[in-house]
Design goal:
The complex is a heterodimer of chains A (76) and B (949). Chain A is mainly α and 76 residues long. Chain A has four helices and no strands. In chain A, helix 2 crosses helix 4. With 949 residues, chain B is of the alpha/beta class. Chain B is built from 30 helices and 36 strands. Classes of the chains: A mainly alpha (76), B alpha/beta (949).
């Protein structure tokens, strides 16, 4: 998956939840949204990105949300 | 000519208190306000008439319906005389018969004498009246001046106008005004010279006529007649069905001769359309038998190979073996499917079932992804249900109507006509749209406020409207206190009240003068019943879901929910967008909008389907294409959908399709996606199958088979056979059995059966034990989620910004005569009105570029370049350009980008930064497109030759 595109998507999600929940709590909304709507390979890609590059290209709330995501199941 | 089934009551129904009178000695009770003519018809009689019909207000011109009323002098016209308590009416007497015969004789002196010469044949109402009154030939002879040599207007492709048969009763003129609201027809001249003309007597084709056909249907003689009836002959039977075009979901009585449709007549009993239709639904059905129809399954190894026609069994076996091979090699989740918003509920349900149960993945999505998916997210979050709140009838109770990002008179014409009727009767109108659409200003219509905002600033606008409501004390405090969550509302109130959300602060963002925003907000909040209708101009944005929430916030804050006349209503683009979403087409949801991770819900489906469903959400359409490019998604089953034309950034889409190893397309034509396909299953049109569609108002209506599928199988049968080839049995012998399963597994459909739909005509879900006959108005008393929830809707500018390189903003839409990707309408005479996508550009922007109407212009964005012909017009504001996407060679989506709604990935079609320059030749993409098109058509023709040979 194109990580730049995924990062844009995640940052757009963050824009909403940062205003809805506040910057401190936004990561919870972002995490739930990504869990509920992203296929496991998309979650795997962004988790790997954060592990390898830290916050690179991501809003802090997104990076925090991604760090809290459970390991997605392997795509078989 | 009326429908074969129609029993005309002469004048419209009334709804007053009961009034009892006596007609020819019989006691009759009807509502106050009823005409004598209608009362007589209700009692089983039929007063002779010609100028009256029950879709139109009484006119009193033909003088055939005269009656005698005890105690009154003279002979009042029964169509214009209302009933009164105790009134005694005589409808038959020697004197009345003498008067009526005299009138008919005069008409007959200037009318074809033989029924066979009159195109309405034996159903010409004038000839019927003559026969009923015993008039054989007029005593005045036929030698006087007449119109019998008047020239026939054959210019319209669907109907002709023969002035020789016209009796100048004005039914057509009144239908054009009262029913359609176009006012294209008039009576020109006076006395004997009176004649029906279109616009300035320029012929129907060149006039403002929109070919809705209301005039043709209302014509009592053969003056206005469908050409299909002239060619095929009188129909022999009637089958009620539902239109397969837009989300209005009009009910039609298809009049047929054998398996051939003679004409489509909008059903008077149809609750979505109330007897009206548009040019697409009434006339543009001939694509069903077009020579381009795919009639044989075909396969090929590579997309650069010619097609090989095969039997159905071979096609199923090949597709199944490829899907299983690919899953074996790349994994279970390397395949997926796309359901169609043009197919029936039952077919859509089966495709998602095939993907989830037979293929074992949740990689299923639908074309609603690219149109109204934010509606589901936004309305479910705020109110608890992913659908509009009202029935279309509700508009007749509205006092203020706000149209946001929708063009109903082009996209949803039958609703547009009802809206116009309500506006002519006094409702006020607010329009938020970057273009000056027909509903902003047209005959007898003038919006009170046109908020001509810049593309991409919807949320800024809705926040500033809400700011006025909150800061000027216009909140319906009682409604909010009783019906909504307190704390979210208070947070929202504080948020929108911030000065940065005021109309004055937002004026520089939206481009809408603050005084207009303030006026519109005050009108919506205080003008009585306020209803919001919106379209893709709301959803197809990077903040589409936020905007839907903003609309819901505004409606809740003003108490405009939970009763007739109010509400929040998406105008769905395609006939079954609502249904395809309801049926579990989204990768995260099972039917009834229940999340796939819900163990209880999934358990019910596991039990019913005999499988263990995956609990993880699957890929959305754009994600599937991304995954194809990275090599993890390899096979796609596409039913009745054309992402290669309809989805944004065409070159990205086609690259994704080309990267797959097996694309199976099920469609009625070789569409753009099929050029990238390895297997082609012939699809069937709505005329070739049974099923149901669900329209924008959640109304489930029957689709009934009229002709056998051209390729032998209906779409639902194809999916069943494909599933079987994959090793998964689906045992249904009729779509009604599929609906029974849907009802068993979906709480909002629990009470739906074909038997009930047949009995009631149609049903609006939820339909269950609490609402056995369905639910016309949602959220009455309380919201589906309990308390309504306000959300903060911060305006976030799109990343798609105009700059020096791309200084204009492109927005897209559709026209009346064409439909979405045009696969159907391009194969009908509708193309006579619109045969290419054009670029609307403001005169100032055109002058800056030396462009005049008709010039070829290159339109370049960050995604690509295409070339269109320019149409210089002030319908668009300076800085904004607009085009449609009906013709694949136009490449409108070559220039749209992959920006999308944050919540749903609905593409941001409505905002693309572009540059426009005058050019002399097609774009590089268009040249490649043309080469590929010619090659693929060569393959198709060779395969068809093989089949026919």
């Amino acid at each position: 998956m194109d990580i730049e595109h995924l990062a844009d998507m995640a940052n757009d999600i963050a824009n909403f939840f940062e205003s809805e929940l506040g910057k401190e709590e936004a990561h919870k909304g972002i995490r739930l949204h990504i869990s509920r709507y992203w296929d496991p390979r998309m979650r795997r890609a962004i988790i790997d990105h954060v592990r390898q590059h830290g916050d690179g290209g991501l809003r802090p709330s997104v990076a925090a949300a991604v760090r809290g995501l459970p390991e997605p199941p392997a795509v078989t | 000519m009326h429908s074969l089934l129609h029993h005309d009551h002469g004048t419209p129904a009334a709804s007053g208190q009961p009034v009892t009178l006596f007609i020819d000695g019989a006691q009759v009770t009807v509502p106050e306000g009823t005409s004598i003519m209608r009362a007589a018809a209700v009692a089983g009689g039929a007063i002779p008439k010609l100028c009256a019909t029950d879709t139109l207000r009484p006119y009193g011109s033909c003088r055939l319906c005269l009656v005698e009323v005890e105690g009154q002098r003279g002979y009042p016209a029964s169509c214009t005389t209302l009933v009164a308590p105790g009134m005694k009416v005589r409808t038959e007497s020697d004197k009345l018969a003498q008067i009526r015969r005299g009138v008919v004789e005069l008409y007959l002196t200037d009318h074809p004498q033989d029924c066979r010469e009159c195109k309405a044949g034996v159903r010409c109402e004038l000839h019927q009246m003559a026969e009923q009154l015993g008039v054989k030939e007029p005593r005045y002879g036929l030698d006087g001046a007449s119109h019998q040599c008047a020239k026939i207007d054959d210019s319209n492709p669907y109907f002709s106008f023969d002035p020789a048969a016209c009796i100048v009763c004005s039914r057509c003129v009144r239908a054009c005004g009262e029913v359609q609201g176009t006012f294209a027809l008039t009576i020109d001249g006076r006395g004997f010279a009176s004649k029906v003309v279109a616009s300035q007597d320029e012929g129907f084709m060149e006039s403002e006529c929109v070919s809705c056909g209301a005039c043709v249907e209302s014509c009592p003689t053969g003056a206005l007649t469908e050409k299909s009836m002239q060619q095929i002959g009188m129909p022999e039977a009637v089958v009620n069905t539902t239109c397969a075009y837009c989300g209005v979901g009009c009910s039609f009585d298809a009049e047929v001769k054998g398996q051939e449709v003679v004409r489509m007549v909008p059903s008077r009993a149809g609750k979505a359309n109330r007897g009206h239709a548009c040019v697409k639904g009434r006339f543009a059905y001939t694509y069903a038998t077009h020579e381009d129809r795919i009639r044989t399954p075909m396969i090929r190894k590579k997309i650069t190979d010619p097609w090989t026609p095969v039997s159905w069994e071979e096609a199923f076996a090949y597709a199944a073996s490829e899907f299983r091979r690919i899953q074996e090699k790349y994994g279970r989740a390397s395949v997926g499917g796309i359901t169609s918003s043009r197919c029936t509920n039952e077919e859509t349900y089966l495709v998602q079932k095939l993907v989830r149960a037979a293929l074992g993945t949740n990689n299923v999505d639908t074309c609603a992804r690219v149109c109204l998916s934010p509606t589901g997210y936004g309305l479910k979050s705020t109110m608890g249900e992913s659908a509009g709140t009202q029935a279309f009838d509700s508009i007749m109770q509205s006092d203020v109507v706000m149209i946001i990002g929708a063009n109903p008179n082009e996209g949803h014409p039958v609703f547009g006509s009802r809206l116009k009727r309500r506006l002519r009767d006094g409702a006020r109108l607010i329009v938020a749209d970057p273009r000056e659409t027909e509903i902003v200003r047209s005959p007898h219509i003038q919006a009170d406020f046109h908020l001509q905002l810049r593309p991409g600033t919807n949320v800024a606008l809705i926040n500033s409207l809400a700011h006025v409501v909150v800061t000027e004390g216009l909140v319906n405090e009682a409604f909010v206190a009783a019906r909504c969550e307190k704390e979210p509302f208070e947070r929202w109130r504080r948020f929108v009240a911030e000065p940065r959300n005021s109309p004055e602060a937002m004026e520089s963002v939206t481009g809408v003068p603050a005084r207009l925003v303030r006026g519109a907000a005050r009108l919506y909040a205080t003008g009585g019943n306020g209803a919001i209708y919106y379209g893709l101009g709301v959803t197809e944005h990077s903040q589409g879901s936020t905007m839907v929430m903003g609309i819901a916030n505004l409606a809740m804050a003003t108490g405009n929910l939970g009763r007739e006349g109010v509400g929040v209503n998406p105008l769905r683009g395609q006939n079954n967008v609502q249904g395809s979403c309801d049926m579990g087409s989204f990768p995260h949801e099972l039917p009834g909008y229940r999340h796939i991770s819900d163990d209880t819900v999934r358990g019910e489906f596991n039990g019913a389907w005999g499988v263990e469903l995956d609990s993880e959400p699957g890929l959305r359409i754009p994600n599937m294409l991304e995954a194809a490019l990275d090599g993890s998604f390899k096979a796609l089953y596409v039913q009745g959908e054309d992402p290669a034309q309809s989805d944004p950034n065409t070159q990205h889409v086609t690259a994704g399709l080309a990267a797959m190893e097996c694309v199976v397309v099920q469609d009625i034509f070789l569409n753009e996606t099929a050029k990238y396909a390895h297997v082609l299953f012939p699809g069937s049109t709505f005329l070739e199958k049974d099923g149901t569609f669900t329209n924008s108002e959640r109304r489930i209506s029957r689709v009934r088979k009229i002709m056998e599928p051209l390729a032998g199988l209906a779409d639902w049968e194809v999916t069943i056979r494909f599933a079987k080839a994959l090793g998964y049995e689906m045992n249904y012998s009729h779509p009604s059995e599929i609906m029974d399963e849907i009802a068993r597994l979906t709480p909002t459909f629990a009470g739906v059966t074909y038997e009930k739909i047949d009995r009631e005509g149609s049903i609006q879900w939820p339909c269950n034990a609490e609402a056995p006959l369905g639910t016309p108005t949602m959220h009455v008393g309380e919201f589906v989620r309990g308390k309504g929830k306000f959300f903060i809707t911060e305006y976030i500018p799109t990343r798609e910004k105009a700059n020096a390189r791309f200084p204009l903003l492109l927005t897209t839409g559709r026209v009346l005569t064409q439909y979405n990707v045009g696969a159907q309408t391009r194969r009908t005479p509708n193309s006579l009105w619109y045969d290419e996508d054009r670029l609307e550009i403001h005169p100032q922007d055109a002058e800056d570029r030396g462009v005049v109407t008709g010039d070829w212009v290159g339109v370049t964005s960050r995604a690509g370049e295409t070339v269109l012909r320019a149409d210089v017009t002030d319908r668009v504001a300076a800085g904004v350009v607009y085009t449609t996407f009906h013709f694949p060679e136009s490449g409108a989506n070559v220039i749209t980008t992959e920006n999308s709604d944050w919540a749903t990935n609905c593409p941001e079609y409505k905002v693309t930064a572009v540059q426009v320059v005058k050019v002399q030749q097609p774009s590089a993409w268009q040249k490649r497109f043309q080469e590929q098109h010619e090659q693929q058509m060569k393959f198709l023709k060779a395969a068809q030759g093989e089949t026919h040979g």
